[in-house]
């Protein structure tokens, strides 16, 4: 099979990859590209997860693309609505024909002589090779094959069914049954109120509480503006309103953690009433935004708890039993179905093996440049969203930067752009400053960030706009090299 060549290869056909393709078409219209997708469908996260109630935990005015207005009434959207939105983007931009499905990208080798990547993907045991001048990784950050489930003692004893939300299948029946959902993160607080609608009873079993905030599923101001203003204008105003509110909340949380903590706990107490033990079940031991804050639309979790169809147990698991779970306190939670909403298995670059001129590059030893490239790795960018805001905000900015960089290489005649650490005062720091278990378990697999610009991740959308959209490309840390051979040079040398 002949090796196909593209100017740009995008890996992943989820939110990031689809957005990347749009930006390339708009800003680099003369460049050829293809999207390599390991699965048989688009959507990434939004196609993979099929558990009850699957929805965004960010508003769609910021999780949506900058170029495509979100026009549905609900700002907190369910999975099928998000998939419909992504399919519209594909069809509007004629992007679908550029996606190659069923290709699991495994290896990429950069050749400075050719100024190109050779990318190897697997499809049914067969190796398929591509070459490209720029490689854009939009593969997300977790293992699509499996989620994370702890080694629970006695798990083999349980007589019912156990499922991780990442492996949810349509045949799972929970109507009228007793369900225990293990976890207290975004997945758990989505599952519990949805399952409580038809289950006999749902218990959310958590080791420790999480910060949970409620907000309306619909953005009334956005829906009002959309009736009276052009779609892009209404979308842009709402997008910036939500960005600024999110940034304000995050900064206030970091500067006045005790004040924000009290406010959040008081809001939960107001939702659940004076007789609910909020101190035990909804008062975390850490500060707000040391871990991600969970969102519940229209307070649906609290509604389920007040109705009695759901409850919370805050305790440690001693062992699974034939009938359910025995807790350290001695209580036993009987269950017909146990859902282990216990987190993700993080996987940087989808486990891609990277070599540069035949030398293996360990990505865990690299340093992240501007949150989108790796030190000493040429012509490769990575879409990695914010931990304190919507993923797509950073993915959009990254795609715009990639297009600027590709056009700059064309203008200058250079074929290679490589981040290099030239400042001896830059010291390594953890890639993500989060205490969440799923992050801490995987940090050693991830690159480092630096102690100062341009190697530091500020998790700040406004600052990144200045840096990525308008900042100089030639900043002393991004080294441009490998100029294109002058036409006729080889002939002259030969003579």
UniProtKB/TrEMBL annotation:
Cofactor list: FAD
Pfam family of the protein (one): NAD_binding_8
Keyword Flavoprotein: yes
Record keywords, A-Z: FAD, Flavoprotein, Monooxygenase, NADP, Oxidoreductase
InterPro entries on file: FAD-binding_MO, FAD/NAD-bd_sf, Flavin_mOase-like
A molecular function (GO) term: NADP binding
Family named by the database record: Belongs to the FAD-binding monooxygenase family.
Name listed for the protein in its UniProt record: NAD(P)/FAD-dependent oxidoreductase
Lineage: Bacteria, Pseudomonadati, Pseudomonadota, Alphaproteobacteria, Acetobacterales
């Amino acid at each position: 099979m002949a090796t196909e060549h593209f100017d740009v290869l995008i890996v992943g056909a989820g939110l990031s990859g689809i957005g990347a393709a749009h930006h390339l078409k708009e800003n680099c219209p003369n460049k050829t590209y293809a999207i390599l997708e390991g699965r048989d469908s688009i959507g990434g996260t939004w196609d993979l997860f099929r558990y009850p109630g699957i929805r965004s935990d960010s508003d769609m005015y910021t999780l949506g693309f900058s170029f495509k207005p979100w026009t549905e009434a609900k700002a907190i959207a369910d999975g099928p609505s998000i998939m419909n939105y992504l399919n519209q983007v594909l069809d509007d931009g004629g992007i679908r024909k550029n996606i190659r499905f069923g290709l699991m990208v495994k290896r990429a080798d950069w050749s400075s002589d050719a100024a190109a990547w050779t990318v190897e993907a697997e499809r049914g045991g067969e190796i398929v090779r591509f070459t490209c001048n720029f490689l854009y990784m939009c593969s997300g950050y977790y293992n699509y094959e499996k989620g994370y489930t702890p080694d629970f003692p006695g798990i083999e004893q349980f007589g019912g069914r156990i499922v991780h939300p990442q492996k949810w299948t349509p045949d799972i029946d929970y109507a009228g049954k007793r369900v225990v959902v293990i976890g207290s993160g975004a997945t758990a607080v989505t599952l519990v109120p949805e399952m409580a609608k038809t289950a006999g009873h749902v218990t959310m079993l958590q080791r420790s509480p999480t910060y949970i905030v409620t907000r309306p599923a619909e953005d009334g101001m956005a829906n009002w503006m959309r009736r009276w203003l052009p779609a892009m204008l209404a979308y842009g105003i709402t997008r910036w309103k939500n960005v600024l509110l999110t940034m304000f909340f995050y900064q206030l949380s970091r500067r006045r953690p005790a004040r924000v903590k009290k406010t959040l706990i008081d809001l939960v107490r107001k939702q659940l009433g004076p007789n609910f033990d909020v101190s035990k079940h909804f008062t975390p031991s850490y500060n707000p935004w040391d871990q991600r804050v969970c969102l519940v639309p229209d307070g649906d979790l609290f509604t389920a708890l007040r109705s009695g169809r759901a409850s919370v147990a805050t305790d440690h698991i001693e062992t699974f039993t034939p009938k359910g779970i025995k807790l350290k306190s001695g209580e036993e939670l009987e269950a017909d179905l146990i859902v282990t909403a216990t987190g993700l298995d993080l996987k940087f670059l989808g486990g891609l093996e990277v070599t540069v001129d035949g030398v293996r590059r360990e990505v865990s030893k690299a340093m992240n440049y501007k949150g989108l490239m790796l030190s000493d790795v040429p012509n490769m960018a990575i879409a990695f969203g914010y931990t304190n805001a919507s993923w797509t905000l950073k993915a959009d900015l990254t795609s715009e930067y990639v297009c600027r960089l590709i056009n700059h290489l064309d203008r200058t005649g250079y074929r290679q752009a490589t981040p290099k650490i030239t400042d001896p005062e830059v010291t390594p720091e953890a890639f993500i400053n989060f205490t969440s278990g799923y992050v801490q378990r995987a940090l050693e697999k991830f690159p480092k960030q630096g102690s100062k610009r341009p190697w530091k991740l500020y998790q700040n959308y406004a600052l990144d706009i200045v840096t990525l959209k308008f900042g100089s490309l030639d900043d002393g840390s991004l080294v441009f090299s490998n100029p294109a051979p002058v036409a006729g040079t080889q002939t002259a040398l030969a003579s």
